Amino acid sequence: TTTTTTTTTLTTLTTATRATARRATRTVARVARPTFARATAVGGASRARTTRARRGGAVVTRADALAPPAVFDAACAASEKKSAQAPTTTLTLGFAAGALIGLGALLMTCVGGASPALAANNPGLSAFVKGAIGLPAGLTMVILTGAELFTGNVFVMLSGALNGVANERQVARSWALSYAGNFAGSVFMAYMAYTAMTAASPAASAAAVGIATAKASLPFVAAFTKGVLCNWLVCLAVWGTMATTSVAGKILAIFWPITMFVALGFEHSVANMFLIPHGMLLGANVSWAQMMTGNIIPVTLGNIVGAAVFVAGVHWLAYGKK
């Protein structure tokens, strides 16, 4: 009898233990399921960040990256917003953009430009270093602060004009104010960098003088063509930043096109508004007239054509109003 009782007790305990284990397993599964879902969402963020919200009992997923037609629509919306912007706002944001691009160009000069041994022994790597360190940082600061860069403004305003949300007067006003602000900000930063003796070392000073002299000596057609190619890439960088809402995505969208244009030796009018005056302050034998006729004017015209034809124009034909 004692043996039977003991066996019955053990059987009961075993059954209870199994039931408890099953309940524990179901509880763990309920807890783990949403946890796994969250982990999967985080892991998938490298492919496309999603925002999930319940709408009428259904889960709606929104991708972080916009499709190309939506990016063009965003550029047109930005054009409409810029058209309504107060002139003082555009001018002030233009000044900020010129100064920030100047800081990026200064970093390029003092790091990549001031590495003569690297340039002599490995010119390809030297070109990449100059491209990767400097102007991508400058444009990143412009984009993240909402500053007004003329070269990107050309693409945005023309997209709106072609799509019928901005008129000629609004385009011309936005261009003029952003350009004037960029020029003032760039020259201001050149003077500040000179006063701070940022490029006082022999290597950095020689780099600044050499850059200014070379840029002011370009043939008109070469400067114009380099300007076209440069702003094609710059505006694609701006396009990329409009395609994403994440800071990391914007930085990555900026890095490759800007690195490409600098490494390949293309010409950016606003960067040159800093680089040439900075070199002149450090002793480059370049006059203001030489700077304007030998570089700024042809490069600006090329920048306008690059943005108008190959970014605003091409994407309007593809995605604009039919």
Order of helices and strands, N to C?
HEEHHHHHHHHHHHH
- Trace the largest sheet across and list its strands: 1-2
Rg (C-alpha, Å): 29 Å
Number of helical segments with 4 or more residues: 13
Please identify the oligomeric state.
Answer: single chain
Mean pLDDT: 87
- Kindly estimate the percentage of residues that lie in beta strands according to DSSP: under 5%
Count the beta strands.
Answer: 2
Query: Percent range for helical residues?
Result: over 70%
Distance between the termini: 94 Å
User: What is the general shape?
Assistant: globular
Largest beta-sheet details: 2 strands, antiparallel
Low-confidence stretches: 1-10, 31-55
**Category from helices, strands and their pairing:** mainly alpha
Please name the defining characteristics of this protein.
322 residues; mainly alpha; 13 helices; 4% strand; globular
Description:
The chain is mainly α and 322 residues long. Helix content is 78%, strand content 4%. The protein has 13 helices and two strands. A hairpin with a 2-residue loop joins β1 (50-55) and β2. The termini are far apart.
